[in-house]
Design a protein that fits this description.
The two termini are 44 Å apart. This protein is α+β, with helices and mostly antiparallel strands. The chain has two domains: 251 residues, Triger factor/SurA peptide-binding fold (Orthogonal Bundle), CATH 1.10.4030; 112 residues, Chitinase A, domain 3 (Roll). It contains 15 helices and eight strands. Helix 1 crosses helix 9. The chain has a four-stranded antiparallel beta sheet.
């Protein structure tokens, strides 16, 4: 788990930016808490999931040639070089092809781009894709220089980790990747690059794990901001008749006795709860007032750390709530702090690679008095002001 967020971040921050919300991030906690919110969660269509997942396995037609392959003179004559990264050309056709494939996959996932917004969307995609291709080339150059090689087995191992820690099936993972605008083939290549970057960063001595004091401080800040951490077991009674409700009441009271007698609360939740949080042992993450329905909120905020509530009835059904202790969440908070430090290191490293690279923009000649614009991204941006 400690490497999980770095793996995802490396693959995504470098080249895609918006694929995963998996693992134990705040975002996933919000999803877990959905059944207790005052607003009902929006329905999620699962139509044509298999078709969309199959489409996700198809490589992007835009990858005309691998990064680092120079175009021939004939290709350059009929195409246009947008940018050269340390002498390697990124072609206009590559970018346009990726834009087209990206929009096709997004629309295949059910998100239609309005006609009046298409030009704006394409412009935003072009800017992002060009930067992604620049970063790709810079990282590939670095991996070659460091003799870092990632095997397909290593990629497969990390994808299995995504499936396990994200509590999703392979098909659901493919669907999320497709909806982000990537094919599964592209994602595997980006994952491979992310793992290579991780290896480089792990050999550096810049990373320092969060101390116990820093972990406790982070916990105290959340508690001081009016948040609590809790787990629960839910027996859903919505739409059920009185007989079923009575049976649920008897069962929840039995579960309460088991929890009060020392049974593992998380295991009871995994085996019995009707809430999606069951996969996390009932854990709802940190939440403040106003997030949950009133009856649940009142009971949860009235507990001491480690205390288990009596049976609580809400419109969703019957609950048992346990307020988490610092010991319950210490390891997770430390993992989150360490992941954030790794993300910061990655951003810093990419910034350094860009600043040291020779980046040439032939299409900006007119702005530079007829000469190709050459320099780092920052230098060129400042020169255009």
């Amino acid at each position: 788990m400690r490497n999980f967020m770095l793996i995802v971040m490396s693959a995504v921050i470098i080249l895609a930016g918006e694929v995963m919300g998996m693992g134990r991030s705040d975002g996933s906690k919000k999803e877990v808490a959905e059944p207790l919110k005052k607003q009902e969660p929006a329905p999620v269509s699962r139509e044509n999931t298999a078709d969309k997942a199959a489409e996700a396995d198809k490589p992007s037609p835009a990858v005309a040639k691998p990064a680092g392959t120079e175009p021939t003179e004939a290709e350059e004559a009929e195409d246009k070089v947008l940018v050269r990264v340390n002498g390697v050309a990124i072609m206009d056709s590559d970018v346009k092809g990726r834009i087209k494939a990206h929009i096709k996959r997004i629309e295949g996932g059910g998100q239609k781009v309005p006609v009046h917004m298409m030009d704006s969307v394409k412009k935003q995609l072009q800017d992002r894709i060009v930067q992604e291709l620049i970063d790709t080339q810079l990282i590939e150059d670095r991996l070659k220089a460091e003799n870092v090689v990632i095997s397909e087995d290593e990629v497969e191992e990390k994808i299995e980790l995504l499936v396990k820690d994200g509590n999703v099936s392979r098909e659901q993972l493919k669907q999320q990747i497709t909806m982000s605008g990537m094919s599964m083939t592209d994602f595997r290549e980006r994952m491979k690059m992310g793992l290579g970057l991780e290896k480089i960063l792990e050999t550096s001595d810049r990373f320092t794990a969060a101390s116990d004091e820093q972990v406790k401080k982070s916990y105290d800040e959340k508690i001081g901001a009016g948040q609590i951490r809790a787990s629960h077991i839910l027996l859903n009674t919505r739409g059920k008749d009185e007989s079923a409700k009575n049976a649920a009441k008897i069962k929840i009271e039995d579960l309460l006795k088991q929890a009060g007698s020392g049974a593992d609360f998380a295991e009871l939740a995994r085996a019995n709860s009707d809430c999606p949080s069951k996969s996390r042992g009932g854990d709802l993450g940190f939440f403040g007032r106003g997030r949950m329905v009133p009856e649940f909120e009142e009971a949860a905020f009235g507990l001491d750390e480690g205390q288990i509530s009596d049976v609580v009835e809400t419109k969703f059904g019957y609950h048992i709530i346990k307020k988490s202790t610092f010991a319950d969440v210490k390891d997770e908070i430390k993992s989150q702090l360490d992941d954030q430090r790794r993300r910061d290191m990655t951003v810093e490293y990419l910034t350094k690679l860009r600043s040291e690279a020779k980046i040439e923009w032939p299409q900006r000649q007119n702005k530079q008095g007829g000469q190709e614009a050459v320099g780092s991204e920052k230098e060129l941006a400042e020169g255009e002001k």
